[in-house]
Amino acid sequence: MVRLERVRKSYGRGPDAIRAADEVTLAVRPGEFVVITGPSGSGKTTLLNLIGGMTRPDAGTILVAGHDLASLSDAALSLLRGQSIGFVFQFSSMLPTLTALENTRLPLMLQGLDDETAGRALLDKVGLGGREHAYAHELSAGQQRRVGLARALDAGPKLLLCDEPTGDLDPETEAAIMDLLVAANHNGATVVMTTHNQGLRAYGSRALNISMGRVQDV
Amino acid sequence: MSISALSLVLSRDLKRRPARNLLLGLCVAAVTGMQVAAALLDAASRRGLELGLARMGADLVAVPRGLSDELTHSYMTGEAALFYMDAAVEQKIAALPFVDRTSPQVYIKSLSGASCCSAWNIFLIGFDPATDFTVRPWLTAHRETPLGPDDVLVGAAIASEPGTNIKFYGRQFRIAGTLDATGTGLDTTVFIPIRAAYLMAKESPVKAVKPLDLPESKVSAVMIKLKPKSAGGSPAYRAAYELEMRFPEISVIQPEDFMVRVQKNLAATLGTLRSASYAVWPVTALLIGLVFGMAANERRREIGLLRAMGATRGFVFRMIIGGALIVCGAGAAAGMAAAAGLTSAFSRLIALKLEVPFYWPGMGDLAAILGAACALALLTGGLAALVPAISASRMEPYEAIRRGE
Amino acid sequence: MKARAVGIAVVALGVLLVLTPWVIFPVCGVGRFAPGPGIAPGMHPCHGTLQAETVLGAAAIVIGFIPVLWPRKKAVLGASLGAAAVAVLAVLFPLAITGLCKVVTMPCRLGTLPALETVATLMMLAAALGLTVYRGLR
Question: Which of B347, B123, B155 is nearest to C110 (CA)?
Fold first, then answer.
């Protein structure tokens, strides 16, 4: 599903440049649930964004679902993201001017499709049935994170990229979010998740560690 | 194309900052309104002048020497011009080889309007039905009905029905017809047969509150129709010169004199409107660019999230440009409506104060004026938001999210 | 806040409605337009319109103050419907009920009538805005 070969990404220039990804070579098989742990600033977020085509590497090759991201045009890359990749962010990623249901339906709408019933079902699944018309400021942090997850699942993605999806949440909500990710994985999605919480490694089928831009198996 | 996603995101974004969008819209409305008002004023005065001159029918008008301005003023405003000259001058003019026909007119100011307020006087024009070529062709309803000795024709703005009576200087007249509107002072005049006008003056010491001094040997103006060049006629300017040389007691007015006066009267107002519009326009464009640039900056994270969901660069571009176009379009629509509405409602007052004719432009001219104003507003909005739109759409999605934190 | 804004708009337009035929574009025989010879103030047909607009303007001011003092949903609805009614009547009176002078060059026709039409249009827009605010209020 995902293959990275000698991928490099740095920020800044000269001796003060930060290597967020340093010669990363990695393969993720379809159906895997990969948990990547590492401290803050280790390059977790950059790695996920490289895989999702949200930023381009300085060097190396990235293949997602058989596509070489470097060879794709912006339109093709956007289509790949819209159809095949779902993002779950560490911050509240609801668009503040849209309701929970509208946020959830947005990925399909961006492709010219729409399924309100499916959107409602997703919100039900994440435990927000009845809050379809709530805006971000009317929901708690945990509820907003659930909307983000529902939205990530809207287009039925093959690959879920989750950047610290349970950061700052209470243990109960954290467990609920992780159960939803496991359920998505069991339904066929490949999940790549980053976290600083080593205790969450147990949810995955494979654990990796990242430090100063370098990835290794645990 | 994901139009429903675009319209959903756009409509919600516009509601997000209502005060800012309203302010921008008002700026665009003000500039568009000034432009449209100037264009409407210009087009309406031209149309009124065309209709008025066509109504007059005359190629030239002879008045007592030095009183051309008085006549053009009363023609624009409908205020009575009161001057007289020897009636014999008409025959002398008619005898000239380049003159086809002449018809005399006598100008009178009424003491009172028949059944309404008396504070404002009506301009009465005595005309000769036998020789007249100015007024008759323009009767709206009674074209072939011969006029009785006490039948009068009223301008379009006089609120009286044909068939009703009207009294001037104690003498009763019957309204035989209403003339087509011209947008000039002619719309508030009453045309009386010249014989009846002289009789009215003769009887006024007995019948009227105040006598009217108008001897039959006097006329106010002579309407002149020139022969075509093929029949030995002269161009109007040459004929006018010839007449003034031969008859030093008269001044001769050409249609161009009316045009010059209208342009002179309009110059200051049009100049002010247009200058203000041209001065404010670049400021408005700059404001649009700045505001949408700021908005794009504020929404970096959202833009990054949309890109993560599959939105293309084109979507982001259309989102920002679309917002600018909607604000400018709404502002332009409000400005056009306000300008057209106010110009139309106050048209008579504007015409009176500026001393210009005013007749609402035809659909073609109106569409052109409004279309041009709308196009300019949209073009300005689109161009002003272009840089922020391009900048936002080109940003890497991850970069947008990082910078938006 | 929005409810009060609607009320303030209606009050302001009510004040404008009163001032228009008295001061801004006075009718014949009022203000800067001295009565004509032999005509006493009040004998012009437009005097009836003057009185009607004064009453309508005062009514709009009272109606507008209600949501200002009591910013509730019903008050906004009442003010909006009231403003709409005032707007319609403000135009009906000069055109059909009390009337104006017949000669078009009289001040009441030249300035007062178009000004009243303008204020009535703005009043109707305020009413529409009020109804939008009413729908959005809880």
Answer: B347
Do B185 and B286 belong to one domain? no
Are B220 and B311 in a shared domain? no
User: Subunits touching A (CB < 8 Å, at least 3 pairs)?
Assistant: B
- Residue C95 to chain B, least CA–CA distance (Å): 13
Residue C84: name the closest of C57, C118, C123, C49 by CA: C123
Say yes or no for a CB contact (<8 Å) between A95 and B399: no
pLDDT digits (tens, 9 = 90+) for B47-102: 988 888 877 778 899 999 999 988 888 888 888 888 999 999 999 999 999 999 99
Give the chains touching B; criterion: ≥3 Cβ pairs < 8 Å: A, C
Q: Is residue B145 part of a domain?
A: yes
pLDDT tens digit sequence for C100-127: 887 777 888 889 999 999 999 999 999 9
CB B201 within 8 A of CB B213: yes
Asked if the structure places residue B176 within a domain, the reply is yes
| Cβ contact, residue pair B117, C114, below 8 Å | no
Q: Residue B317: which residues within 8 A CB-CB, separation 6 or more?
A: B389, B390, B392, B393
User: How far is C76 from chain B, CA to nearest CA, in Å?
Assistant: 20
| ipTM score assigned to the predicted complex | 0.92
B79 CA to chain C: closest CA distance, Å?
10
Q: Percent helix, strand and coil across chain B, each rounded to 5?
A: 60, 15, 25
Q: Specify whether B200 is located in the same domain as B267.
A: no
Q: Give chain A's domains with CATH numbers.
A: 2-217 (3.40.50.300)
Which residue range(s) make up the domain with C31? 2-136
Q: What is the tally of structural domains in chain B? A: 2
> Of B253, B273, B301, which closes a domain?
B253
Residues B185 and B272 in one domain: no
Same domain, yes or no: B95 and B194: yes
Predicted confidence (pLDDT) at residue C41 exceeds the cutoff of 80: no
Q: B113 to chain C: which residues are within 8 Å by CB?
A: 102-103
Residue B349, chain C, CB below 8 Å: the answer is: yes
Domain that holds residue B327: 3-50+261-403
User: CA-nearest residue of chain B to A45?
Assistant: B398
> Do both B34 and B140 map to the same domain?
no
Q: Which pLDDT does position C31 carry in this prediction?
A: 67
- CB distance from A51 to chain B under 8 Å? no
List pLDDT tens digits, range B22-55: 999 999 999 999 999 999 999 999 898 888 887 7
Residue C36 carries which DSSP code?
P
Q: Which chain A residues contact residue B305 at CB under 8 A?
A: 89, 93, 95
Question: Looking at B187, B220, B253, which one is the last position of a domain?
Answer: B253
Low-confidence ranges of chain B (pLDDT < 70): 1-3, 112-121, 136, 138-144, 405
Task: Search chain C and give the residue with CA nearest B340.
Answer: C118
- Whether B9 and chain A come into contact, CB under 8 Å, resolves to yes
* Residues from chain A contacting residue B18 (CB–CB below 8 Å): none
**What's the number of domains chain C is made of?**
1
Contact C123, C79 (CB under 8 A): no
- Residue A121 tokens read as 């079902």
Strands B171-178 and B189-193 turn out to be unpaired
Probe site for chain C from B74, B175, B349 (most C CB atoms < 10 A) = B349
C44 and B117: CB-CB below 8 Å?
Answer: yes
SS3 for B232? coil
Residue B55 located in a structural domain: no
Percent of chain B with pLDDT over 70: 94
C118 vs B115, B158, B342: nearest CB:
B342
Question: Residue A210: which H helix or E strand, with range?
Answer: strand A206-211
In this structure, are B132 and B226 located in the same domain?
yes
Do residues B128 and B267 share a domain?
no
Asked if residue B171 is part of any domain, the answer here is yes
